[in-house]
Amino acid sequence: MRGLLRTPLVCRVVGRRLITLYVVGRKTGRRYTVPVAYVPDEGALLIGTPFAWARNLHSGEPVDVRLLGRRRSADVQVVTDEPGVVAAYAVMASRNHQFAAFNRIGLDAAGQPDPMDLHLAWAAGARAIRLTPRR
């Protein structure tokens, strides 16, 4: 998958939902390449994950991303508080139903996420990341 996101034709198709993050481990200094789903939101990119790699991202510290085949820096804002995560996950789940399914967030007939499922995602360790790509 990582290699495919560097391929111009594939990144035009898959890149509308996936970006690659280049993350440096906070303890080891190892470099990780992480493909992750995103949702565009008011000029930024929203990412949600319950996985440990996200602890390597810190608000105010830039991270390198590959977006639509182009590598650039992005400013990071990590959201861990319950209201913030629930709100961000609501946006991501309503716009990307695969994200909702992966995170076990049910959707009603109108495509709106179940509020209880959003709170359960936060309780299970979910965090939201807002990336603002630099020009």
Description:
The chain is an alpha+beta fold and 135 residues long. It has a single domain (4-133), classed as Pnp Oxidase, Chain A (Roll). Helix content is 27%, strand content 33%. It has four helices and seven strands, in the order αββββββαααβ. The protein has helices at 8-14, 82-95, 97-102, 115-123; strands at 18-24, 31-37, 39-41, 44-49, 63-67, 70-79, 127-133. Strands 2-1-5-6-7-4-3 form a seven-stranded antiparallel β-sheet. Helix 2 (82-95) packs across helix 4. The longest helix is centred in the middle third of the chain and has 14 residues, at 82-95. It is globular, with a radius of gyration of 15 Å. It starts with 7 loop residues before the first helix and ends with a strand. The mean pLDDT is 90.
Chain-averaged pLDDT: 90
CATH topology: Pnp Oxidase, Chain A
Write down the oligomeric state.
single chain
> What's the shape?
globular
CATH class group: Mainly Beta
Count of separate structural domains? 1
Q: CA-to-CA gap between the ends? A: 26 Å
Content-based structural category: alpha+beta
Architecture, according to CATH? Roll
Q: Note poorly predicted spans.
A: none
